[in-house]
Amino acid sequence: MINKTKHDSLPSLGSALSTLATRECRRLLRALAMRKQRQEGIHEARKSCRRLRSILPLLPPEQPTDAVDHGLRELAHSLAPLRDAHMAVRTAKLLATAHETSITRPVLQALERRCEQMIDHALKQDPHWRQRRVEAQRIVAAIHALSWHDIRPSLAIQTLKHSKRRVKKARRKALALRTPAASHRWRRRARKLRYQLEFLRKARRMAGMKKHRTQQYGEQAKHLSAVTDQLGWRQDFQIFLDAVKQLPNSAKVLALRQELKSKSASWSEAELHA
Fold it and tell me: Which residues lie in coiled coils (predicted)?
């Protein structure tokens, strides 16, 4: 009787996922409110948007998630250029440290100026992210209104199977095509599956469900984390290449562009992580 009472007091899988989604919503709002560490806030806000998008497919198909998904996607996309500009600087510094390159101090300063100018321009258009925060509040309210209690373990398993098929398909195409776009699609799908596994692992623990499957989800998420980290470096390198193309012409920039033509293939495979 004691064990049964203890089990009955635990939340259902859907209730646990609702709690986790609420926590992620709070993280999103806090990230957008950050002022002193603006780039960290941008990064955390985009991660929260991606995590929340990953959890929506776990809801029953009849739930009105399309508008929420679209809103999260647009919010994340609005911050993407700012994050990319910051990552271009970060990647340049990593390459300058790890390789003999033409990434000189003037080039780094040009990338840093570009990053600062983009932030300044964005903040003039949306001071302290007020418009974005209003939109985020609207999205959060819509997320809270969804019927999380309707989520069933069987539906979660079906969703994971579908996500795994999408990852396998993207992986095959990426290995066949060897293009940045294909690799990025593989990374996005692998990351989404990883988030789903992490959410379900935590929710199952909260709901007191069988440990074996819960542990499997944790192991699978850990493997996917290694995959997305490796693919993430390639994406960061591509962002760096695109940023260099957009810098004003100078002797230093032109020299770096010439060097990138011959070395970019080997650099893109470099195991550089912060």
Answer: none
CATH number for 67: 1.40.20.10
Tokens of 66: 């399309």
Residue 166's domain spans which residues?
Answer: 12-268
Tokens at 225, concatenated:
């984390």
Output the average pLDDT for the chain.
Answer: 91
- Domain membership flag for residue 54: yes
Angle at 64 between CA 63 and CA 69, to 5 degrees: 115
Question: Position 56: which residue type?
Answer: L
Which residue ranges of the chain lie beneath pLDDT 70? 1-9, 99-100, 263-274
Residue with token string 């007020």: 130
Q: Rounded CA gap, 86 and 69, in Å?
A: 26
The count of domains in the chain is 1
Using CA atoms, how far apart are residues 244 and 254, in angstroms rounded to an integer? Answer: 9
